[in-house]
Amino acid sequence: MPNSCPASLEQIYGVLGHPVAQSMSPMLHTWAFAQKGVRGLYTAWDTPPGELAAFMRAFRETPYDGASVTIPHKEAVIPFLDGLTATAQTIGAVNTLFWEKDRLMGHNTDMEGFLSPLSGLAAPGTALVLGAGGAARAVLAAFASLTVPRVTIAARGQAKAEKLAADFAASFAAITVCSWEDRLTTTPEDGRDFWVVNTTPLGMHGKAEGESPLPEAWFAALPPERCLAYDLVYNPLETAFLTLAKNAGWRRRDGLDMFVAQAAAQFRLWTGLGMPEPQARLLLANYLAA
Known about the structure:
Layout: E1 11-17, H1 25-36, E2 40-46, H2 52-61, E3 66-69, E4 83-84, H3 86-91, E5 96-100, E6 103-107, H4 110-115, E7 126-130, H5 134-145, E8 150-155, H6 158-167, E9 174-179, E10 194-198, H7 216-220, E11 227-231, H8 240-247, E12 251-253, H9 255-271, H10 277-289
Parallel strand pairs: 1-2, 1-3, 4-6, 7-8, 7-10, 8-9, 10-11, 11-12
Antiparallel strand pairs: 3-5, 5-6
């Protein structure tokens, strides 16, 4: 169970990453604390990679009660922990820190969040994953749970993508890596659906906003009735990637449902309470639309 504070004291949580100014985690969790009557404080800890070790020492010494972990620390934080949950071990990345008695543990709620808006859909025959970071690991674990047979990873860092493919090789009938320049060659291979997932920051507010990892002509050349585009970016809600997919008639999933679902799982782990997810999505959607 997560560490707890006396009722008279605030529990302190935050999001650990770099940069984190664009994160909506503080808004969401602060709102959820208020909704459920939790005396909690949730802040942002902007921590460059070179300062991670010092921050983790301070995390233990304070101690803070828990954290969300985002880019670029989802894998780098693991050596500073006392253990991982089975889910985090499978994924090989962490997005949640919590205390289990006196042990600082790492968990991952990204897979649960990723699957949330896909309920009821038949699994694709082929998937293209753009990016090879911690979020891509959660996506691959989710695809393995859906028994997707074939996956291609396209990333700018070839070595990182190849390691990711090797780590998940036993989970798929075929998992391949292509260079970022060759990503446009990946297309459906059978009569089943084809899903494309953007796990990169391309299109994110403050990071190449307005850019898409795939061009308009590529979307238009594929059969829309069989294709789904899923962008893990949630700010802005309507990314260039999703706009191009919509113009080509593709089905789409934005990153907000995943963000809310993974945050709700964190909130439940820390507090034992449920986050009202429909209201949470509305809160954030209204903020993004303002």
